[in-house]
Q: What sequence folds into this?
């Protein structure tokens, strides 16, 4: 009986101490929060506009290659030669597509890294404890999107 009572007291004291520590930790929540609209930064970026323009010109070049291939294949009367031409152009178009995709992914990744670096530097310089994307925050936080855009330019 005495053992059960002492265990109950220890558990109660442990609970009280844990609850008190939790209240102390929760009551000191002076967090300085910032938000960043990354979608706006990306859509306004001159790098993205240039990249889109380059992608369009590469797609036009691929379309030209495809039209040339169709014309040459349709003129070829020998079935074996037509199949070889078709394979040759298929490989060429695939190479162009892979090169275009790799370039696009690298440039997007570089821009993303650049944005993260600028946001981290801005957060450190202005003593923010937390920076979140604007689209996940319903209310609150100081919007630092304009400051980040200025630094990116």
A:
């Amino acid at each position: 009986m005495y053992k059960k009572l002492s265990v109950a007291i220890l558990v109660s004291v442990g609970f009280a101490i844990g609850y008190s520590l939790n209240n102390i930790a929760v009551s000191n929540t002076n967090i300085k929060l910032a938000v960043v609209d990354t979608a706006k930064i990306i859509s306004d970026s001159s790098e993205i506009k240039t990249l889109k323009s380059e992608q369009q010109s590469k797609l036009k070049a691929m379309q030209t290659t495809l039209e040339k291939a169709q014309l040459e294949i349709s003129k070829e009367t020998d079935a074996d030669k037509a199949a070889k031409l078709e394979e040759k152009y298929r490989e060429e178009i695939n190479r162009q597509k892979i090169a275009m995709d790799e370039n696009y992914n690298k440039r997007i990744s570089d821009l993303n890294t650049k944005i993260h670096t600028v946001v981290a530097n801005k957060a450190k310089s202005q003593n923010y404890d937390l920076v979140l994307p604007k689209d996940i925050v319903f209310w609150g936080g100081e919007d630092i999107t304009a400051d980040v855009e200025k630094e990116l330019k």
In short: The first strand starts at residue 33 and ends at 36.
